[in-house]
Every structure is written in C-alpha cells, then in structure tokens.
Amino acid sequence: MLKSIKKYGILVLMAAVVLTSCIDKNQKENNYPTPGINFELPVGDVYTIDTLLYMWHAEGTHTFTQDASVYGIVTDDEASGNLYKASFIQDGDKAIELYMKSTSGLRIGDSVRVYLKGATLSEYSGTPQIQDLEPRNITILANNKFIEPDSISTLNVNSNYIGRLVKFYNVEFRAADRNNTYAPDNAYGQFNLAQYQMNADSTYSLVDESIIVRTSNYASFAKTMLPQGNGTIIGILTYYSTGNAWQFTIRTISEVQMFGDPIEASIITPEGSGTETDPFNIAAGLEHQGDTAQWVRGYIVGSANIASGAITNDNQISWGPEFTYNENITNIILADEADERDINKCLVVYLPHNAASGIREINLKDHPENLGKILKVHGNLKAYLGKSGMKDTNEYELTDSE
After folding, report:
1. Counting Cβ atoms within 10 Å, is residue 395 exposed (0-12), middle (13-18) or buried (19+)?
2. What is the number of structural domains in the chain?
3. What is the pLDDT of residues 299-341, one digit of tens each?
4. Is the preceding omega at residue 321 within 30 degrees of 0, hence cis?
C-alpha cells in the first residue's frame, strides 16, 4: 500500500511548491497567525485522508517514523472554545480529527499540509485521529477554502460520515431540554436532537433522536439557552463507541438556525402552591395526584364522553365545539394551554350533581360557551376515568380567557 502511494509524492510536492509561492503574500495580508506556517518541512510520502482511514481500519494504531504528509481543508477549529487542542480536516467526503499537543492558530477554511512524522494514527473511542501532532508541523497553504456541509437526515448517519461536516434539517431539541443552556458550568452539555417527518394527514411523527449535541462548558456559547424552535443545524459528526452514540459538535452558534415553530410543544413547568390565591397550574396538578383539598387553575378544553370506566382513546373525548353526549354533563377537562389535545397533559375534573356550589351547571353540554374559559376549582387530586383528575369538587371560579 505504501509503495503505491509514494509515486504520487513528487507530483504533489511540485503542486505544493507552486501553490505556496503564490499564497505567502495572501497569508500576511489576512493577518493569519504565524504558528503552523512552515514551508521548510519535507513532504515525504503523501497520504490521502482516505488512505489513512484505510490504514486505521486495517492496522489500528500506526506511528509515522518517516517523512510523510496529508492534505486537507480545516472544517472545525478552536476559535469558539468548543474544541481544545483539536481540529478537523476534510478532503472530499473523507475526514479525520487532528489532536495536537498544544493549541493552534488553525481556522475554518484553511487549506493545510499536515507533516506526519512523529505523529500517531489512532482513534478516540471510534473516531479516527492523528494524535501527538505538533501544531508547528501544520503548514497553512491557503485561507478561506470553505467546504459545504453534507445535507442529510439523522436517519442516514453511518460510519462514512464520521468527522465530516454535515447539516441536519427539520430538527429540534426535545421540549424537556429547552430550558437548559448548551452546557452547564462544570461539565459538557449533552442534548438529543429530535428529527420529525410529516405524515399524509399533515401531522408529524418523531422518527429519530439518536444524535447527541455535545458542547464544552468552555464554548463561547455555552451559557446560551437552547433554541425553542425547529430548523437546521451545522456541525461535525463523531462517534463515541463506549456509549454506542453519535455525537455532534457545533462550530458556531450562527449555524444553529431553529426559528420555525417546534413540532413538540413546550413542556409547562409546574407552578403554584395549591392555595386559593396561588393555585396549582395543571402541570403541578398532574404532579400532585393524591393530594387533598387543593386548588388548580386551567383552560376548559373539552369533556369526556364517558361517565365510568377509563379513557383509552380520543374517540371518548369531545374537544368541541359540540358536546352532544349526556356524559358531557358529568365532567370537564382542564389544561394549561387552550389548544391542548393530549389527554395526558390534562386534568379530568368530576362535576358532582349535589355540590352546594352548583358546579355541575358549568358543564359543556348545557353551556358550550364555557369552552376556552378559565376555571379555578377546589377538590381532591385523584384519578378519574383512568386519567389524572380531580374529584370531590365544590368551590370554583369561572372567568373568561385571558
């Protein structure tokens, strides 16, 4: 294999000499850092990134003891602080990580020659690396040679994409994670990307959440809140074999474009103390099932079509605007959002016929105009019709929606 590569060394060396004679002035004008610019390093045997990956798969660890070089374009650097003593280079559809002995002045878009003598071809838990690399052994040949990311679905991720610059569409962070920053103060942040697809009826289904966005707490954007919407994200894909996990490294926060409406609705934070002046919201009511003599407050969003048994499907619920079942007299359904249609995020409230307050009179069969109004109600938080609920209700306050 090595002999078959050596014959290309002279041609690559000639091309490199011509190129370096043309761009030296360019580098000075762009004020790129001097570390890593060394045109006196020998070229030696020339490897492609593809060949290095082949060697890694075939041999495992390999230390270079002779003059040798590999060429590529820098696709990620240390500028944002999300990488430390590391960069990635790519050539066509092949990529590899550079793990250095110290920080470097490499920048995204630099065309480089990496002098390999003394370095080791290895991997970090499944992601191939050139390790023990001296930054001064990297020659910057040109600047601003940017590579376009591969636009793929998270479902199409495989070993061919390790180390490559990719772009995911129609992704978002899970609702349960969106109240976090990219990374906490003293650890890496790790949050899954959710990929959705549209169904024939224009609804969406979650199809994948296997990609983990991993962010250093030293990244310049570590304390930025995760985006609330759906959209695109660009970064470097790596593999962590210990956890059998695909990981994703963001280069810059500007490449996270999640400004569309999220597919997964935001999760409501439980609030309130359960008193008349500070009632539980519905999220808190769900958490406090089993508590007695509590106040809750939420939007009236519907009514169950059954008076006994358990709700097992959506056909047993009337979300409105019509409420034609006699059973609609016996209960109402409360939620934190007026357009909620997930019964598991709702509270089913029993309306007893003999309550002194006459609370049954607010039912939706007799008063469909109450749909969307806000009800504050007192009772015991206990399961009703097989769902989180409230029974033994009496006192209440009904107001128009805000």
Report:
1. middle
2. 3
3. 999 999 999 999 999 899 999 999 999 999 999 999 999 988 8
4. yes
